[in-house]
Design brief:
Length: about 290
């Protein structure tokens, strides 16, 4: 079945971005050639392989698999057997790949590395989204804690898993954090300077780690407050205290076990760095199909 969220149907990252990421990965792995395959396999031999799930997972990265094999050998055919965002069971195929055996083997590791990483993020994200209470309006989002160079793929994987993205990069939004507050001389000073310099179309978000800082941020006109590591037992009363004066985001130590409690408190957004920095790779493998 598909992840029950329209975000799962979003388009993959731009083709040029995927091309650059894949090219670097192939340069790293394929290097000057595949000496094992060249030694063992006839250059003219053709083959067929299936990428299969070893365990249940949310599929993600099919376009990247295609791009890997397009760059390895444009004559290789890659046929999807699933869709990004689809929850599949162990043993189900994800892709069918047909072409020269040397090409199939040469691109195997890079294709699997991408698909395993992306499917792992999508699978973990789905777990968090599904743990929200029924009817919850709380939005699950990622953070900028992504693998350098792979942000576009990882954030797409989060969307495929049914969640949303936070700011894309440092230019995308004003988010005042603890070190900004320290460098600016306090919450109010940081927010005042942000208002003077930020575009008028940009909301001002401020991270707070105490009730005192929360009050300062609200008094200074923050439009979004990020409650950093607030205890679960105070979240509901904090939401009541804010009383709609700002959007409320919660971050810090958010686990699968906590997210339902956090959402029931009535917060607007829960940001989870673990979606990208701690998601385990999904278990996918490439199985040779013997047609003899």
């Amino acid at each position: 079945m598909d992840v029950n969220n329209p975000q799962a149907r979003q388009q993959p990252p731009p083709r040029g971005v995927v091309e650059r990421i894949v090219a670097l990965a192939l340069q790293e792995d394929l290097g000057r050639g595949d000496v094992t395959t060249e030694a063992c396999v006839s250059p003219g031999k053709r083959g067929e392989a299936l990428v299969r799930a070893r365990k249940p997972l949310v599929v993600c990265g099919l376009e990247v698999i295609r791009e890997v094999y397009r760059q390895v050998d444009p004559d290789v055919e890659v046929h999807d057997r699933a869709r990004d965002g689809e929850l599949i069971q162990a043993g189900q195929p994800v892709s069918r790949i047909v072409g020269k055996a040397t090409s199939l083997l040469g691109g195997e590791r890079v294709a699997l590395n991408f698909a395993q990483r992306m499917s792992g993020i999508a699978t973990m994200t789905r777990d968090y989204v599904m743990a929200l209470p029924e009817g919850s309006r709380t939005r699950v989002v990622d953070t900028r804690k992504t693998t350098p160079g792979l942000r576009a793929l990882e954030r797409y994987s989060v969307r495929v898993g049914g969640a949303h993205n936070h700011r894309e990069d440092l230019s995308s939004a004003v988010l005042i954090k603890d070190n900004h507050i320290a460098a600016a001389g306090g919450v109010a000073a940081a927010i005042e300077r942000a208002r003077e310099h930020a575009p008028h179309t940009t909301r001002i978000e401020c991270e707070v780690d105490s009730q005192v800082q929360l009050e300062e941020a609200l008094d200074a006109g923050a439009e979004v407050v990020l409650l950093d590591n607030f205890a679960d037992e105070v979240l509901a009363e904090t939401v009541q205290f804010v009383a709609g004066r700002a959007l409320i985001e919660v971050s810090g130590g958010v686990t699968l076990e906590r997210i339902a409690t956090i959402a029931r408190a009535g917060v607007d957004v829960v940001s989870i760095g673990a979606l990208t920095h701690s998601a385990p790779s999904a278990d996918l493998g490439l199985d040779w199909v013997d047609r003899t």
